[in-house]
Amino acid sequence: MEIVSKNYIAIDGDTCSGKPHIVGRRITVPQISVWHEVMGKSADEIATEYDLSLSEVYSGLVYYFDHREEMDGVIEESEIFVRELRGRIPSKINRLGSF
Question: Which CATH number belongs to the domain containing residue 15 in this structure?
Fold first, then answer.
């Protein structure tokens, strides 16, 4: 029996800050998992919206579920980073509303 597999996920330090991502793209596995698990997008919707193949989307989801604890940690770190930025940088929208 010959086992054949096509790899769609890469991890390197030069692209996407070392996060697992779709080969040749800057779309990370954590992004795919958030779009699917949090935002409720189907694999078809993600593939269409981001010009990915279904195989690439499903490979990202497989990687996420195989490394769920690690990926959830990466997502949480990103959320903390965004909260810290929001706390340090005042919103320009709020300033526009005070004419």
Answer: 1.10.10.10
CA distance 53 to 44: 9
Q: Does residue 50 lie in a domain region? A: yes
Kindly report the pTM of this predicted structure: 0.79
**Residue with tokens 């769609």, as numbered in its chain:** 8
Burial class (CB in 10 A: 0-12, 13-18, 19+), 80: exposed
What burial letters (b/e) apply to 5-20, b meaning 16+ CB within 10 Å? Answer: eeebbeeeeeebeebb
| Domain count for the chain | 1
Range of the domain at 56: 9-96
Sequential pLDDT tens for the chain (99 residues): 665 567 899 988 766 678 899 998 999 999 999 999 999 999 999 999 999 999 999 999 999 999 999 999 989 998 999 889 888 887 777 666 555
